[in-house]
């Protein structure tokens, strides 16, 4: 069996296969890049009808990342998936506190998830940053709660938690109420790879 072994050709062919699935959506070039990266990461063209990109999200995130902002993640899988070399070129770094002992203790004391406690621990550092949530709906709910109660405003939010309990509801609430621009995926689909893909799409636009 013949198959492609050159990484660049594999990616080029993948993007060519994806292109017809988003061609009729009248997307701005930056948004089209986000759609393509997400679909590529998922291996699922059905995402084309589920992705939601706020009109200001790509521009706001790109501007913040180019200025050297940090990225705050709900889980290590998101942080690991982000192209940290590209991020570091502009002076930024990716952070995750899900395994932090202090966050774990705070979660136990408050009777909440570690993902929620991590968002609280990030606190004011979230302002002007990019937040990437790919796993925990509770992290997204907590972020929305923080924004509703304070003046903290991330530059952009990638909110794509996956699952059957709270994920769709958290993303619906993000789209309906977020004072910050966002990228999300309707319904139960999503995940860490999807969050990282959306962030990387924006980082790759920095060329």
Structure commentary:
With 207 residues, the protein is an alpha/beta fold. It has a single domain, classed as Rossmann fold (3-Layer(aba) Sandwich), CATH 3.40.50. 52% of the residues lie in helices and 10% in strands. It has ten helices and six strands. Strands 1-6-5-4-2-3 form a six-stranded mixed β-sheet, with helices on both faces. Strand 4, helix 8 and strand 5 form a beta-alpha-beta unit. The termini are far apart. The model has no long low-confidence stretch (mean pLDDT 95).
| The CATH top-level class label | Alpha Beta
The strand order across the widest sheet is 1-6-5-4-2-3
The major sheet is characterized as: 6 strands, mixed
Uncertain segments of ≥5 residues (pLDDT<50)?
none
> Can you say what the CATH homologous superfamily is?
Cobalamin biosynthesis CobH/CbiC, precorrin-8X methylmutase
Mean pLDDT, to the nearest integer, reads 95
Number of helices: 10
Structural class: alpha/beta
Quaternary state reads single chain
């Amino acid at each position: 069996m013949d198959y492609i072994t050159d990484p660049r050709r594999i990616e080029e062919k993948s993007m060519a296969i994806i292109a017809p699935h988003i061609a009729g959506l009248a997307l701005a070039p930056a948004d089209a890049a986000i759609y393509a990266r997400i679909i590529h990461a998922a291996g699922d063209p059905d995402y084309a009808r589920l992705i939601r990109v706020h009109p200001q999200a790509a521009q706001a995130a790109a501007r913040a990342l180019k200025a050297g902002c940090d990225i705050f993640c709900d889980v290590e899988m998101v942080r690991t998936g982000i192209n940290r070399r590209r991020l570091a070129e502009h002076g930024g770094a990716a952070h995750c506190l899900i395994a932090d002992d202090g966050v774990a203790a705070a979660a136990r004391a408050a009777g909440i998830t570690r993902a929620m406690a991590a968002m609280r621990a990030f606190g004011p550092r979230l302002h002007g940053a990019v937040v990437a949530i790919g796993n925990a709906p509770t992290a997204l709910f907590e972020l929305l709660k923080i924004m509703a109660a304070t003046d903290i405003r991330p530059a952009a939010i990638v909110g794509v938690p996956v699952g059957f309990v709270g994920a769709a509801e958290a993303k619906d609430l993000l789209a309906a109420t977020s004072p910050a621009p966002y990228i999300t995926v309707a319904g139960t689909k999503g995940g860490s790879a999807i969050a990282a893909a959306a962030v990387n799409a924006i980082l790759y636009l920095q060329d």
